Amino acid sequence: MSRKRDGGAGASVPSTRLSDGSIARIVPSPYTTGWELDVAGTPQSHVDLDDPTHLHFEYIARMGAVIDRLKLPGQPLTVVHLGAGALTLPRYIAWTRPGSRQQIVELEPALVDLVRTELPLPSGASIRVRIGDARAVLERLPAGLVGSVDLLVSDVFAGAQTPAHLTSVEFYRAAAAVVAPDGVLLINVADGPGLRYARRQVATVRAVLPNVIVLAEAQVLKGRRFGNLVIAASAARLPTTWLPRLMAAGPHPAKVAEGAQLDAFVAGASPATDADATDSPAPSSSLFDR
After folding, report:
1. What is the widest separation between alpha-carbon atoms in the chain?
2. Which one has a higher pLDDT value, 200 or 9?
3. pTM of the model
C-alpha cells in the first residue's frame, strides 16, 4: 500500500501528543523514499510501505541481517518486540517470513494509533500490540510464550534515551526467560565516544546469556562517534557461519565483534543492576539536524 507523499509548504503533518508531552509526527523521509516517525525531534523509525524490506536506518539493517540468519530462510518465527516505533521490523518479518507470530509491547497507545492510521500494517500479518511498560508486560506474558520465543527485540526509547530499568541484569534475566533455548535476544544500544555505557551493557548481557556478538559501524565500535550498536545474544552457541555473512550484509563499513575482541571490549566493565543502572546517554542536540 502506498501513502501519498505530501510534504509541501503548509501541508498538514500527522501527529499526536504522547504521555510525557512530546510530539510524535509522521513525516516524509528527507533522504530516501518512505516515511519517518519523529518523536520530539529525534527520528525513531523509517518505513517504506511499498517495500517492507527497505531498512534505511543502519542499526535496523544490522538487526535485519541477524534475523535473516535465524532458522531456515522464510521459516515463520515467534517474535516479541519491546518498543513499537513505526513497526519497521514487524513489517519486515511479516514480509520475509509469512506466518510469523509477533507480539509488540509499547507504552504509548497514542503512538500505536498514529502509526496504524498513517502507516497501516500489511493485511493478514499476525501482529498483536500490548500496551504497557516493556518490563512489566514482559514479566506477565502468556505462559505459552515463555521459553518459546525465537527472537526478542529490545529497542525501547523514551525520547532519545533507553530507560534505566530496561538495561539491568534483572531485566535481561526476564528477557532470557522468554527466549527459547536456541532463540536470540537483539538489543539496540546507543552510545557516544568512549562507549562506557555500551561496554557496560555488553557486560550486563553476558552475565545472563553467554554467547554474544556486537554489530556496528567500524568507527562507532571504536568509540569515535555517537551511534548505534546491536547486541545479539543467546543461550546457544551462535553459528560461526554467521560472522562472514553478517559482515558481508553490511551496511558498510561493518564490524562484528566476538570472542577475544569482545573480552577486550568489556574489560573492566561491571554488569548493571536495578540498584545502579542508568538511562542511556543522550545524543548531542545537533546529531539529528537536517
Report:
1. 55
2. 200
3. 0.93
